[in-house]
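Hello,

Following up on my earlier ticket. Below are the two sequence lines again, exactly as submitted.
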Amino acid sequence: MARMKFLCDAERCIECNACVTACKNENEVPWGVNRRRVVTINDGEPGEKSISVACMHCTDAPCAAVCPVDCFYTTDDGVVLHDKDQCIGCGYCFYACPFGAPQYPQASAFGVRGKMDKCTFCAGGPEADGSPEEYEKYGANRLSEGKLPLCAEMCSTKALLGGDGDILADIYRERVLLRGGRPQTWGWDTAYS
Amino acid sequence: MHELTSRDPGVGDTGRKRGVKTILWSLLVLTMVALALPFSGYLLTESAQAQASGDDQNARANFWRAVREGSSGYSAVRGPETGVLIQNGGENWRALRNGPMMTYSSWLMAGTLGLIALFFLVRGRIKISNGRSGETVPRWNAFERALHWYTAILFLVLLATGLSLLFGRLVMIPLIGKDAFAAYAGLAKDLHNYVGPFFSVGLVLEILMWIRHNLPNETDVAWFASGGGMVGDGHPSAGRMNGGEKLWFWVLVVFGLTAIGSGLVLDFPVFGQTRAQMQWASLIHLGTTVVLTCFAFGHIYIGTVGTEGSLEGMTTGRVDAEWARQHHDLWLKELAAKGIYPESSSASVPSGGAAQTRTT
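Thanks for your patience. The regenerated structure is below:
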């Protein structure tokens, strides 16, 4: 079984934000929610670096550990998903996540947030694969169609890679060997164990 | 080397002595050098570090270290903290909440209940020593009672829903399943979030209303010194509020107000609070409410089962004169000084109520 991971190559990311747009379009993400975002460190200075970040589908996911209703589950592919029917919108996953992945369609008084929304690795949710209900709540289920997440698939510089962690590591190792320098598997030490 | 020198032939007695001296000195020097040599590494690295001070020496390491430490960059996606790549506080929050906070809070609450049960078994109900007099004095007016029960009921709602959110996953999901619990937890979360501010109003009014009765004085020292009448048969003096009640009052002031403050931070996430602030607020809310809960257990026990004649003060507003003499002797004298004397309540209750409204 594959163990799905994201890897963003900071030497390649050009901050075009196409991954953000592709994700919103493919998954019909609710207003105000961006499942993926691009962050530029030292923006405008020499040596600036950009990273595209979304849910990293952690091995020991903090969101799942703190959820009061235990609505998270990890698929056989290592993708961390959640059940929106069970989600109570308490915000705990948002407190716990290091990557700022969980987001809410609302932010109003009395802690009314609505159901949490986050990157699904284009793997939908607990409903039947490809069903309208699944699409309505979670967006596309590309994995069930044998496709990888659209953000990574359409990345013009192939900075953002999504797929089996072993294959990603091989591709990345080859790049580092060819161009020199040290590997920067950004976020991997935080997300994966 | 040592052996070679000592076996050197043709060396006289004085020469041998000098030889031994030389050996010892050279050994000492060798030892010193051997001990000192490893430290020379520090000299080298220190000079190297002096050269490398400044971020340009290991720019890449410093760069990613800054990212791991939660420094913020630019993001086209607008919103609170969207520029932060990694926020580490969440891992600490998770470790503390799921670890020590849950463990110790459950033991603290269970331990308090256990101690109360043990106390009840050993001491039993504290009776009115001289029996009821049949005469009563007014203790809590209608507004005080209404406010007390308003706050008390909301507290119990908050306690039940809060405990459900903290321990429900461990305790209730195995019993009723995820879907049923999720439905209940959604309701519990809404109740908790909506009831909280209303409880806050009640508690703040209570504090304002009762603070003048709860200022500590010397009587309280003596009260605590003699165990508050809970151990032994002595009945220490007390005014309208005894030392224990004052302690509960100040626990409510300190822990109650902190719990309210931290709760409001979590309840109204519309002022741009950061995750770090909400993580802290959550931990503080958890810690303070557990302490409040333990004291509330004690308060409820003493006010109901633990003491004969206490509860009626908060239900009917009047307490038996003998109860007052036993638990609040100074207060009874204060009442007498104000011209409020015990009245017979053997007459019908409405007339007693009417008498109360006349006197107060």
